[in-house]
Amino acid sequence: MSQQAQREIWLRFLSGPDIDSLQLTRPEIISAVDDVVAAHGRGETVFEPRMHLVPNNGGVGHFNVLRGHVSNLGAHGVSGVKVVGDFVPNYLQGLPSELAMATLYDPTTGVPLCVMDATLVTEVRTGAMTAVGAKHLARKDSKILGHVGARGTAFSNVTMLDSLFDFDEIRVTSKRPESREAFAEQLRAEISTPVRVVDTAEEAFDNADILIEASRLNEPTPLLRTAAVKPGAFVVPYGTVSAVELDLLDVMDKVVVDDWREAQSGRFGALRPHVDTGRLSPETLYAQLGEIVSGQKPGRESDDERILLWHRGLSILDVAVAHLILTKAEQTDTGTMLRYR
User: Fold this and answer.
1) What is the pTM of this model?
2) Which domain holds residue 97?
3) Distance between CA 39 and CA 122 in Å, rounded?
């Protein structure tokens, strides 16, 4: 055997508690996501369309497989793969609806660098993407946030938005009263902005400046109605199953996506019917968010613009946040080193 073939390879395993101990802050997560979105706009990322694995399990859930590479991370860039389950009934077993595992690799050798619990990665990168979108597309003086959905990424959505805006009120709701009440209490323990629980999506969205639809539906149901979107509103629908009306895009001044190719792929997504019917097309799309963050196109240009962002969850966000976690873990020698070969 050659000397090269005999070389030992070790990788770092990071459990959920390991990652919790690193105490990532919202500003550094938002910054990491903002940076990678800008890199995407400059063409410094590579990723494949997400894939779905749908087991024969009676329809209780499926897996998403995301693969991406970011050139401007580390000395040579970083490649990564994440597998995340989407199992809505998991709350009945005391489990998160989204459990994930991520692996990072050296793109010049293929050497695996890390295996980590990516459940937190999935939550915070989605909330950070919502926040980055709002940073560039929402009115700076937004005062009312309406949020539908109480599990998964909901906590990160609200708390990261709250870190950027001086809200007067945050309204939350979800399908189950006990779920939305528990969510509100969780938020009140973390932020000082008044949080009000409401019974319906209509109440949550009424006269809101920022409208977030993060529901967990089993079949399409119009929770975010077109009439609820006032001039100047910023709208983010991203539930797996569509919860918006088909004519929603008709009132939008700008429609932005994270990536147009990704918006066209897969079976799921809030605006899947709009893509399938041609209402969302290259002609009606204003920009990819990376074009705006990198300065190639303007974001919000007037206080009256209605702007919608549909983000489906790009793999490069997972890679960026996972790399942030790995970097902090290396600096503090957190985790367990495992012999690979």
Assistant:
1) 0.90
2) 3-121+316-339
3) 20
